[in-house]
Amino acid sequence: MAYAGSGRTATAGAAALLPLVFLLLQASAGVGAGADCHFPAVFNFGDSNSDTGGLSAAFGAAPPPNGRTFFGMPAGRYCDGRLVVDFIAENLGIPYLSAYLNSIGSNFSQGANFATAGSTISRQNTSLFLSGFSPISLDVQSWEFEQFINRSQFVYNNKGGIYRELLPKAEYFTQALYTFDIGQNDLTAGYFANMTTDQVIASIPELMERIASIIKSVHGLGGRNFWIHSTGPIGCLPYALIHRPDIAAVKDNVGCSVTYNKVAQLFNQRLKETVARLRKTYPDAAFTYVDVYAAKYKLISQASNLGFDDPLLTCCGHDAGPYNFDPKVGCGGKVLVKGKWVVLGKSCDDPSRRVSWDGIHFTEAANKFVFDQIVSGGLSDPPVPLRQACRSKGQ
Predict the structure, then answer these.
(1) Which of 32, 83, 254, 331 is the most buried (most CB within 10 A)?
(2) What sections of the sequence does the record tag as coiled-coil (predicted)?
(3) pTM reported for the whole predicted model
(4) Which of 219, 318, 361, 392 is catalytic?
């Protein structure tokens, strides 16, 4: 409780650091319908779908062969290469986002990433080691953001020097794009704790209240441009199919769990409604809801026509069952055999032909497909392209 109280104090302090003039910049920037917005920075909140190194920094690095396709080595991502958030950064012409928790080699001049693998909207009353879900929930990420504003602006203004090259300018906090991609783990955490479908569904309204509260906090700190992803078809992920076979029993013609996906769709419906309410509450801000579910399910359901192999077949895993997924041996996982560590969680030969990287996350090729589907705004509400996401005010 004391920490939550200090978070509210930090909000007020951080807000005070932002001169009122910067809160007016967004309204005056980029006159002319259809013109691209100027997003000098991106601040991201989420889970492993957009984590660029948070969990690796806090709890141990993602092992090889993660990163093999693009980075040539592990790069804090649970993927063979780039994530959707990396393609967003490329499209906006800014560097890949450094994880806030990564203290070595980080550059925050054009944004920061607070996402952490295993994170949830709600707080987890357990540990990462017991449940597999991160203690760095969305509210903790928002507190990190408050601290980031306070500390970065103090250091930028009082120490100067190299810090002015590594930290954002004050006006960037209002001009930036704020991206959110979280919620998948809240649904699976419920199921993994043996909740019924009705119980998981009953938890969704509270999740919406929490995410709305966090966005309100970010708005209070100067955020004005929000790009909010729906959750994906969790019923098509091998780890979910295996963990609760009772929930996965009824499948569609692709092999995905009907129940899992219906719950994900209900979550997304409520999220879209929540974003609409936020749009009315804060007419000075731009809110874009992005239907990532549609992009991912299109890829999975049309995989063969799009040049991919079996969309439910894991690329990096251990041969155990129909999905090449063993919950006891993850990607890069090792076992001790006669005194020597042997890697069992190996990569397939060509990750570019797989949708699933490790049974939980997508490959770089799949992430690129998803990004290409959402960047133009065709799956967004309102239907604005990524580069014009500041133009959805009042829509």
Answers:
(1) 83
(2) none
(3) 0.90
(4) 361
